[in-house]
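explain this.
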Amino acid sequence: MLCRAALSPLVRSPGWCFVSPPHVTAAISRLYLPCQRLRNESIRCWSNIPFITVPLSRAHGKSFAHRSELKHAKRIVVKLGSAVVTRGDECGLALGRLASIVEQVSMLQNQGREMMIVTSGAVAFGKQRLRHEILLSQSVRQALHSGQSQLKDMAIPVLEARACAAAGQSGLMALYEAMFTQYSICAAQILVTNLDFHDEQKRRNLNGTLHELLRMNIVPIINTNDAVVPPPEPNSDLQGVNVISVKDNDSLAARLAVEMKTDLLIVLSDVEGLFDSPPGSDDAKLIDIFYPGDQQSVTFGTKSRVGMGGMEAKVKAALWALQGGTSVVIANGTHPKISGHVITDIVEGKKVGTFFSEVKPAGPTVEQQAEMARAGGRTLAALQPEQRAEIIYRLADLLTDQREEILLANKKDLEEAENKGRLALPLLKRLSLSTSKLNSLAIGLRQIAASSQDSVGRVIRRTRIAKDLDLEQVTVPIGVLLVIFESRPDCLPQVSALAIASGNGLLLKGGKEAAHSNQILHHLTQEALSIHGVRDAVQLVNTREEVEDLCRLDKLIDLIIPRGSSQLVRNIQKAAKGIPVMGHSEGICHVYVDTDASVEKVTRIIRDSKCEYPAACNALETLLIHRDLLRTPLFDQIIDMLRVEQVKIHAGPKFASYLTFSPSEVKSLRIEYGDLECCIEVVDSVQEAVEHIHKYGSSHTDVIITENEKTAEFFLQHVDSACVFWNASTRFSDGYRFGLGAEVGISTSRIHARGPVGIEGLLTTKWLLRGDNHVVSDFSEHGSMKYLHESLPLPQRNAN
C-alpha cells in the first residue's frame, strides 16, 4: 500500500481501533490543518491521543431497505469507472465531468458526510502524457535526421498499461487536489494491490489510515496500483462473505466499502444502471431495484469501452458489498443531463440507476402497477358501455353500504393528523368525510354512469375520402392516468369513476395523511371492478415512491393530473419529464361588483363565493369594487357581511389610498388564501376589472355582478379564464354542479380540456380508415381515382 503525503504505517492500539503514533498524528495535523473543517467537535482521547469524532447516523451492519433511507448515509464510497473519468478517445481525462463529480462530493463532504473516491483514469492520463512525450521526441529526432517531410509518417507505438499508469498517477492526483482545493477540502491518495488485502498487517494499516483521514475531514482517493499490479487470475473472484479478490476497481470499491463499514457505495459507469437484457436491445428495461438471486434472470452484455470490468463484474461486486451490509447504487456518470447531480440525487433518494436491496417489497413495484393499469385499462375500454356503467353503479352503492367502515377509517386519519399537528385547518376540512359527503359522492357517481353510455368509441366525424374509402374519427381513452392528490379522500372514487367511464387505466397517489381512507376506498373500487374482471385497471401506489420519481415514468404514464396545493402542482409541472400535466397551480378567483349591481344579489353571491367553503380552489380570493360604490350603503353592506362572517380583509393599493385607517395592505395581489381572508381592490371600470384579472388572476373562475346586460356580455367575452360567470357564485365551477357527475380537476390549460374536467376531458381520438385495395398512386395526376372528401352523417347517439 502506498499513501501520498508520507502517512506512516499504523499500529494497533490495544482495546480500541488502529491509530497512529503521536508524532505521525502531529505531522498529519500540521500538514492538513489549514483546510480542515472540524465537524461535531466532540473530542475523545484514545491512548492519550486526541481525535475529533463524528457520530454516525446509524449503526452499521444492515443495508438500507429503501431508497428514501439513503439520505441517512454517513459514510459513502463513490467509484468512478474508466468510462466516467476518461474522454471518448481514451486519451486524457473528461475534465468537465470530473469537476462536476468533485463538486458533488465536496457538497456532501461539507454536509458532514465522510466521502471516499475509488477512481480510474491513471492509465488514460498517462497515455496522454506519454503520447505527447513520444511525439515530441520523435519530431525532434526526425527533424534532425530525416527532414521535415517525414514527420507525417510518424507512428505512435503501443503503450504498455503499467507504464501509462506510472506516468499518470501523479498528474491524476494533482488534478484532484487542485479541484478539491476550490472547495477548501484536502485529498489524500492511497494506492493498493490485491496483496495488501491478503497481508493482515497491511490490511490493518490501510484500515487505520483511512479512518484517520476521514476523522480529519480529508477525502481519500483510492486506486489500484496499476504500475505494479499483476494480471488478474482467471477464476479468483468472489470467495465468500469475507474475501473478494481485488482485480479491478469494482471489486476494490466493494472490498473497501465493507472493510470501512460504509453505508453506501455508488458505482458510476457509462450505462444508466442494470437492465434485464443488454442495453440497446429492443426489450431492455432498466431495473429499478435489484435483489440477491435476481442475477439468474439477467443477461449481461459486453463490458464498457474502457476499463477491466463489465456490468457482470459490477453486479458481483455490488452483491458482495450488499451482503457485507453496504447499500449499492449503480448509475450513469457520463450522461450530460444528469451527471451534474447524479451523486447528490442518489443520496437524496431519487430514483436514479439501479438500487440493490435485500428487502423485497410485498406488493408490485410502481412500474408493474403502471403496466397492470395499462393492461386493465385496455380490457376496460373493450367492455360494453353498459358494463362500465354497471361497475360505477356498483361503486356508488358500496359508498353508501359501507359508510360506517369508510367513516371509521377516515376518523383514524383525522385523529393521526390532529395528534401530529401537521395539517392546517383548511386541509383538515378537505380530509374529513361525512355521511352527506358520501351521499353526494354516490349521486355524482350515478350521474357519471348515466352519462357514460356512449363516451368511448363515439364517432365524431365521418368523411368519404373516395369511392369505398371511408374515414372515421372516434373517441378513445388517453391511456394511463396518474392522479396525485392531497388530503382529499373523496377524490379517489370520483376520479376512479371517471377513469372507468372513459376506459382509462389509473394510478392513484394519495397523501399519507389520508392513508386509511384511501385504502378502504380503493378496496371498494377494486371490488366494483371485479364484477367484470378488470380489478387491476385502478391502482393505488402504496410504495415509498417520491412524486418526482413518478413523474419520470414517461413510457408508462400518458397524463398527470395533480389535485392539491398550488405548490404541489408547481412541483409536478417542474418534475414531469415528457408527460403532459393537466390542472391548475392556483385558484385566484375574482368577483367584480359593477355600478349596476343588485343590492340583493351582491351580498348573497359574495358570501357564498367566499364563506361556503373557503378552502376550495373555486372560492373568492379578490373582490373588485367599482370606484363609484365606495362610501355607499351597498359597500357598507358588503363590509358588514364580511365582518359578520369573520373574513379578514386585506386592502389592495388603490383601495388603501381611499381610506384613512385601512386594513393591512396586501403584499401581493396574486395570493390564494384558502381561508376566511380576501383582498379588496378598487377599479374604475369593467375594462380595468378585466385588465386586473388578466394581470393578477390564475385563469380559473371570475364573476361579474351587474344588472347591465351589455356590461355583463363585455365581461363574459373579454375575460380569458376557464370559467366566467354572470350573477352566480364562483363555487359553481365544479364538475358535479356542471352535471358532469364529478371532475378529475379544474384545468386552466389552453389546450385539450379546460375548466372542470369530466369524461370528455379524459378522451382523445383515433382515425379509422376502411378501404378496398386502395393505394395512393391511384390518386396521382394520371391515376384512376379522385378524392371526394364528402362529409357523412354521424350515427345517432344513445338517447339515454
Observations:
- DSSP finds 24 helices and 29 strands in the chain.
